[in-house]
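Dataset card, provenance and construction

Sequences and ligand SMILES were collected as paired inputs. For each pair, a complete structure of the chain with the small molecule in place was predicted and serialized as structure tokens. The example below shows a pair involving pyridoxal-5'-phosphate. Curators did not alter the output after generation; any descriptive sentences attached to a record were derived from the structure itself.
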Amino acid sequence: MGLTKAKATMIMTNSKKSVRRNGRMNAVKRNNTKKPKIATNLPGPRAKAILNKDHKFVSPSYTRSYPAVVESGKGVWVTDVDGNVFLDFSAGIGVVSTGHCHPAVVKTIREQAGKLLHMSGTDFYYPNQANLAEKLAEIVPGAKNKKVFFGNSGAEAVECAMKLARYHKRRARYIAFTGAFHGRTFGALSLTASKATQRRFFAPLLSGINHVPYAYCYRCAYNLQYPSCDVACVRHIEDVLLKKVVPAEEVAAVFVEPIQGEGGYIVPPPKFMPALRALCDKYEILLVDDEVQSGMGRTGKMFAIEHFNTKADIYCIAKGVASGLPLGACVARSGIMDWEPGSHASTFAGNPVSCAAALKTIELLENGLVENAARLGAIALARLSALKDRYEFVGDVRGKGLMIGVELVGDAITKEPVKDRRNAVVYEAFKQGLLLLGAGESTIRFIPPLVINENELHAGLQIFEGVLKKVFRAI
Ligand SMILES: Cc1ncc(COP(=O)(O)O)c(C=O)c1O
């Protein structure tokens, strides 16, 4: 599990000392580190052929920001169909937590695939589904007495949480946050308020959902400062929304990402999650923690909510849970997951192979990868934060563990978002062999696989710094 604060501080201090002590030696070692290898124009000839086919037959709704056509992956490295080698700081949108094709995960998948591919956990029983539910009940914060519903994706975990909250509370409404991303199925999309494109022409969405500003302190909706604001964004929910717009006794749940992902990698201040918990307790509203992106060790603790000393009533999990196989899970206290047989189910969900991959993934996370995310995340955050002091266009650097966002701006005073330049940075990084993704309007996210080592981390950050200088023409 995650590190204690004291242990994390000790590791950070020691790593800082050792970086100083071994500065020169490390620099020499880093020069010998494996680097990306780009041998063709991008996209290369074989990539172009795939792109042509893809453009002809695959839905144009996907948001590809550059033409990476990947053939294979190992650890933090992926190779494209033309043999170009990239350093992957996207981890397949935070999915390959244990790295690409971790040998232990691949072995487990192969063994399980040879035994049983599918049986449908909604109508039959098999060991892996029960074993994984037991494990998730153990590692998700809160009392051990929990139950798990399995789905195939993050959106399905969220749909489950929405239906369960309504069913259990017999209340119809939800509260969510601006900037939130909870998925793209109709229910989850109704909670999502990250980008207008995601909702355009899909109305009417689910009714009874109110969005309130997230604790985005760098761009506070109330123009206040933390902590003197006294978490105004949570007070607003009580003082305005619940008093004037939405009767609290009609609200089933508040949905929140403990660190906002697609919305821009926004880390709320320490008091935000506890204040939200207190509000939910006061009005007997369920608190749903969407850990789809921030969970499974990504932030240096198994779940991001643990950074804020808060427990939720329902948790949504997906992405990194099974190292790349499709799996979603909605975890709730047993007393909350009280619905009757037939009220919710899914044919493929929690299939034996995904469950086996998840059990192995969790074992690897518990045996070092969560700790690695905390240690290397601290190093990355320190190095990226130093850029803020050097360049005015680096507006904000924030994150926990290996979930870090760098928000680029026009200048430090106006903080004007620079979407085009952010996109140019992402594209140029691709050309130099580093796979990055944007988030929010003007942020770049750093989410490498949690198996990354220090040399690989510095190799990626070195490329990123060079790209920033090139795009912003900085010295
Ligand atoms: C916080 C959060 N919730 C839900 C989802 C939806 O997950 P999926 O794309 O697997 O449906 C995402 C996807 O990015 C996410 O980041």
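Derived descriptions for this record:
The chain has a mean pLDDT of 94.
The pocket of pyridoxal-5'-phosphate is lined by residues 153-155, 158, 181-183, 257, 261-262, 290, 292-293, 318 (CB under 6 Å).
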